[in-house]
């Protein structure tokens, strides 16, 4: 018994053997080591899909605005636009393409067609160069071609640029630069081509694409890839273009206070408030403080605003003996007297031979579709354009607000 106990004691107290506390410490270190290894392994496994995903994203290698193969195919199929033809060959049976002017056209994804070939995709710097060419050399060029044709060409080539951007999952400052120029171009086009026949310009299609570009641009601003010096401009353009939209208003109110307090966004918020309150007099007065491109974004709401003003005055001044001076009404509408009289008659409001407006709530009628031509009432925007060229407007609209 004693011998057995002494053997047990001597075994536990053998020289070099760890004590109970040392065993516990060793187990703890071993457990921590295994935990760190597991965490490291989990991180590596999490990074593998990301690295694999990045490796599978196509990267464009085409260094020209139009891939060489596409240019050859369109030459053979006689599908070159005259903006892309080599000078001197326009009247040939098969005109030749100018590599310095040809731009990749938009094509819908088709079954069996590989749209991710690097040789057919343009990297971000080439895409930005392409957009600058479309704006500076095509849209802004003084030519004999009608601007509807210029718009159709540029619009199609910008869709091809967007397609390359999406396939390459493009982001960052180059992406923002392309989107800003595209949004400016489409907003300007919505003003300049307003009232054109549908076969030449479809405002609904332009609006759909503009909303997509604008939404993408505002999402880019939310990422920390800045700085974005033009964010104030485009946040205000979004609010003015989508006047009365609860979603756009909510997005604007979630912006940081320093951005929300900038002059352009504050002015856009005041105009939006006047629109929601159906206060057309205040809205039209505030619209005078907008720069040209901001007025282009707002212009599609101005006709409705002017009709609301006539409706409000038809109720407020409805009396047999009440006469309202036409000149004063023209100042409120920011139109000349002849256009004001034309607008009044279109809404059933009488203008007598003494240039006095006779309001009557019973006589007011909504003008029929196609009765009013919006382009005739663009005076607010046209006065602000002055000597601004398309290049100035689209590349950088730096005109300051009028105080």
From TrEMBL:
Residues 1-14 have a biased composition (Basic residues). Transmembrane segments: none annotated. Residues 65-352 form the SAC3/GANP/THP3 conserved domain. One of its GO terms (biological process) is spindle assembly. Residues 47-57, 83-107 have a biased composition (Basic and acidic residues). InterPro entries: SAC3/GANP/THP3, SAC3/GANP/THP3_conserved. Pfam families: SAC3_GANP. Gene3D superfamilies: 1.25.40.990. Residues 1-64, 83-123 are annotated as: Disordered. It comes from the Eukaryota. GO terms for cellular component: centrosome; nucleus; spindle. This is SAC3/GANP/THP3 conserved domain-containing protein. The lineage of its organism: Eukaryota, Metazoa, Chordata, Craniata, Vertebrata.
């Amino acid at each position: 018994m004693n011998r057995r106990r002494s053997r047990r004691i001597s075994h536990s107290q053998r020289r070099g053997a760890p004590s109970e506390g040392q065993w516990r410490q060793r187990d703890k270190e071993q457990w921590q080591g295994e935990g760190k290894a597991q965490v490291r392994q989990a991180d590596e496994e999490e990074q593998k899909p990301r690295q694999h995903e990045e490796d599978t994203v196509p990267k464009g290698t085409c260094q020209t605005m139009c891939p060489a193969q596409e240019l050859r195919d369109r030459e053979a199929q006689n599908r070159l636009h005259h903006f892309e033809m080599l000078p001197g060959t326009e009247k040939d049976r098969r005109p030749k393409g100018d590599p310095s002017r040809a731009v990749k056209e938009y094509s819908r994804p088709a079954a069996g067609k590989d749209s991710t070939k690097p040789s057919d995709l343009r990297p971000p710097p080439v895409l930005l160069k392409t957009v600058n060419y479309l704006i500076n050399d095509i849209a802004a060029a003084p030519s004999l071609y009608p601007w509807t044709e210029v718009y159709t060409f540029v619009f199609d080539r910008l869709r091809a640029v967007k397609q390359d951007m999406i396939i390459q999952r493009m982001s960052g400052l180059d992406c923002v630069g392309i989107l800003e120029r595209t949004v400016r171009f489409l907003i300007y086009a919505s003003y300049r081509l307003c009232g054109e026949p549908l076969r030449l310009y479809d405002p609904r299609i332009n609006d759909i694409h503009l909303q997509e570009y604008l939404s993408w641009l505002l999402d880019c601003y939310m990422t920390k890839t800045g700085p974005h010096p033009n964010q104030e401009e485009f946040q205000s353009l979004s609010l003015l273009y989508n006047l009365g939209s609860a979603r756009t208003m909510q997005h604007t109110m979630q912006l940081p206070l320093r951005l929300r307090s900038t002059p352009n966004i504050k002015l856009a918020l005041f105009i939006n408030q006047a629109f929601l309150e159906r206060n057309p007099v205040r809205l039209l007065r505030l619209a005078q403080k907008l720069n040209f491109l901001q007025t282009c974004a707002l212009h599609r709401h101005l006709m409705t605003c002017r009709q609301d003003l006539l409706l409000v005055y038809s109720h407020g001044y409805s009396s047999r003996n009440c006469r309202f001076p036409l000149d004063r009404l023209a100042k409120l509408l920011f139109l000349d007297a002849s256009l004001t009289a034309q607008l009044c008659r279109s809404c059933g409001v009488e203008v007598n031979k003494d240039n006095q407006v006779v309001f009557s709530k019973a006589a007011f009628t909504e003008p029929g579709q196609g009765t009013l031509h919006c382009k005739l009432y663009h005076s607010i925007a046209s006065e602000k354009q002055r000597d601004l060229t398309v290049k100035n407007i689209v590349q950088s609209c730096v005109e300051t607000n009028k105080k």
